[in-house]
Write a structure and sequence with these properties.
This protein has helices spanning 40-44, 52-82, 87-114, 142-150, 171-182, 196-204, 225-234, 256-278, 294-299, 309-319, 340-360, 369-376, 381-400, 414-437, 445-471; strands at 18-19, 36-37, 129-135, 158-164, 185-190, 211-216, 219-221, 240-249, 289-293, 323-334. It is an alpha/beta fold.
Length: 479
């Protein structure tokens, strides 16, 4: 799965529903009602429409029933563990290892089964956009980033602002050289105060277009990425102010660490965002590749000074009643950490960023009911990490040595359930995302096996470190 292997999709692979593109410069608020050319197939297969709230009610009911069944089955397991600790301790173990993870997986699985993302109603948006590239010592990759923005198939005007955050290398020089080489409109704005949020906010002051995209300096866009991202935003429901793109791993051939991350980005992260996007509450419009309404971001004060600045800005947008979507076919490719130590630091920052987001914008402060419910799932994530790192992993070791105290044969059923879930997600990604984009999935079997067996152990351990950094208020860094 690589940016270098990303030919543009054929017209036959695009959405069944097409509409006339609005005149150049037209925005969501002043466009006319589009003309629909619905296909016979879509009419023939039209089904009963379920609102996002109805879908969530179905998914939540299924997850609660699954959790109830788990409680009924797990009572014997809790009693067995209680022989070594106490009955209360036994139930704590069961909840952390089985019931809470089962509830989350069931909720996500049913949500994905109900997900029917509507096709684009505007295939060729033309409204001008600005792309902000926040850069700190990015002389190695800034040329490629600008090049991939320059070869887009978007019909509207695309302006680029490189927000130089006090770089000490040749980032600025190479950015201007790339602008001349690829004949694109690039402006470099300097921000000496360290911190990505400062760089983004300084660049935001110079944005003159109604919509602004953020792209990390180590991220490469698919040629159709901007068009598809804008098409989703402009044809979404009312009050959509941001859309997160799909970020995949570009350097997955480097080593086992990047091979595992390839599957996480392609299956795990994509599935979570699909579920959240179904309810118009994508919890992170990630800075690596997302689009926002410019004035909506300005109205909330821009990006905050936080490790998870993209988390906080997304939650603040939703807190005002706005919606945030996800577009799985708007694809960008980023460099994943190649060293275990770098990966652990990254995931610790993500975990700490989530806590900072919860502190700044608690789920119960969201104005929309679905946003409250979806954001509240993040409150369960620390329990998943605690259960996995401190109970599941030691339990597997004890089981292998003949002591089925924390983990038994019944709990090992999580593996076939996991394979089934990822199989469903992989089918969707292959047929509905990579197919239309002309991309192919690499054969990465070793990475997939390692992803299933080892990856979560690293993630949960790193997350616990991030939670501790938040609690003890450790110093924050951009990278």
């Amino acid at each position: 799965m690589s940016a270098e292997d990303s030919p543009v999709a054929d017209d036959a692979d695009r959405d069944e529903v097409t509409r006339e593109a609005p005149p150049t410069g037209m925005t969501r608020r002043d466009r006319p009602a589009p003309i629909v050319a619905a296909s016979r197939a879509s009419d023939r297969h039209r089904k009963i429409y379920l609102t996002p709230a109805s879908k969530y009610a179905i998914a939540l009911s299924f997850a609660l029933m699954w959790a109830g069944l788990s409680v009924w089955i797990g009572r014997y397991w809790a009693e067995d563990i209680g022989q070594y600790v106490s009955l209360v301790g036994g139930w704590i173990v069961v909840f952390l290892v089985a019931i809470i993870p089962g509830f989350v997986v069931a909720l996500m699985g049913m949500s994905l089964a109900l997900d029917r993302q509507p096709p684009f109603r505007i295939q060729q948006p033309t409204v001008p956009v600005t792309v902000i590239v926040a850069a700190y010592n990015e002389e190695v990759g800034i040329r490629a980033t600008i090049e991939r923005i320059a070869i887009h198939d978007y019909l509207g005007d695309v302006r680029i602002i490189v927000a130089n955050n006090n770089s000490s290398d040749r980032t600025v020089e190479r950015a201007y050289a790339a602008a001349e080489e690829f004949d694109v409109d690039v402006t470099v704005i300097d921000e000496p105060t360290p911190g990505k949020s400062h760089a983004l906010n300084t660049a935001l002051e110079s944005v003159e277009t109604e919509y602004v995209l953020t792209v990390d300096a180590d991220t490469l866009l698919h040629p159709e990425a901007i068009r598809r991202l804008m098409a989703r935003l402009l044809t979404g429901p009312d009050h959509v102010v941001a859309v997160a793109g799909a970020v995949l791993v570009r350097n997955s051939r480097e080593n086992l660490m990047t091979k595992m991350q390839e599957w996480d980005y392609w299956l795990g992260i994509a599935a979570v965002k699909r579920m959240q996007g179904l309810y118009s509450a994508t919890l992170v419009a990630q800075g690596a590749f997302s689009v926002y309404e410019t004035e909506a971001v300005r109205a909330i004060g821009g990006w905050p000074d936080a490790i998870g600045e993209d988390i906080v800005v997304t939650w603040r947008l939703m807190m005002g009643g706005s919606r945030v979507l996800y577009e799985p076919t708007a694809v960008a490719f980023t460099d994943a950490p190649e060293k275990v130590s770098h990966f652990m630091k990254q995931r610790a920052r993500w975990a700490r960023g989530m806590f900072e987001g919860i502190r700044e914008v608690p789920p119960w402060k969201q104005s929309k009911g679905l946003a409250k419910l979806v954001a509240s799932i993040d409150l369960l994530i620390p329990f998943l990490d605690i259960g996995y790192a401190l109970l599941w992993l030691p339990g597997v070791v004890l089981f292998l040595f003949g002591y089925p105290i924390l983990v038994s044969l019944w709990t090992l059923l999580v593996f076939p359930i996991t394979l089934l879930m990822y199989g469903m997600i992989r089918h969707f990604q292959s047929s509905r995302v990579f197919g239309p984009l002309g991309l192919k999935v690499r054969r990465n079997r070793i990475g997939y096996i390692a992803f299933l067996l080892l990856y979560q152990a690293l993630c949960s351990t790193a997350s616990l470190v991030g939670y501790a950094q938040f609690v003890f208020n450790r110093e924050r860094t951009w990278k």
